[in-house]
Amino acid sequence: MRSPRDPAARLETRDLFSKCAATVNLITCPQGGVATGMTATSVCSLSLDPPSALICVNREARTRDAIVRAGTFVINVLERAQDDIANHFSRPGSDKAIPAGLLSRDPRLAADLAEFPVLAGAAGALMCRLERVVDFGSHSIMIGLVDRVVGGPAGAEPLVYHDRKYVATLAEHLLPAAAEKGMLSALGW
């Protein structure tokens, strides 16, 4: 068995996780009077009692320290047409400031935007208060208590990342291959 510290084990692990489809999110928080953000797929619900979620952020990422200072963050579930936003905020070293034009203009959120920067057009968002940070290896597991849930447009579809590329939905990605292999009847379609 290979040591977890072996570089080959890290590459194999990364390759395996590329096969796991994941919703693409923009994690946002306030920083020095502006909103800042980063793209993340390591996001999941944690508990419904109390409502909470976790995000995993590289310990060297500027957004990690901004979240700790702010004490708040937003998990913006990107809509399938927002891949350009995902690409921009996933580049190391890129400007992480979010232009005001990308933030929600919903008057119901106006009072909260300075503390919880919600992205316009997102499939949905969770406004979270940072509860705990657990450092492990290269990343921090950041636990947030859900302060508010913001629904997205009716029928919004999330952006999904699978096999190192964006796909609208996993079914949309897999159906053409399944049809070619004559598997659709076996799946009940």
Summarize the structure.
The chain has 189 residues and is of the alpha+beta class.
List the helices and strands and how they pair.
Blueprint: H1 7-17, E1 22-23, E2 25-31, E3 34-40, E4 43-48, E5 51-58, H2 62-70, E6 72-77, H3 83-90, E7 124-136, E8 139-151, E9 160-162, E10 165-167, H4 170-180, H5 184-187
Antiparallel strand pairs: 1-9, 2-3, 2-6, 4-5, 5-8, 6-7, 7-8, 9-10
Question: What descriptors fit this protein?
Answer:
single chain; 189 residues; alpha+beta; Pnp Oxidase, Chain A; three-stranded antiparallel beta sheet; 5 helices; 23% helix; globular; Split_barrel_FMN-bd; riboflavin reductase (NADPH) activity; Flavin_Rdtase-like_dom; FMN reductase (NADH) RutF; oxidoreductase
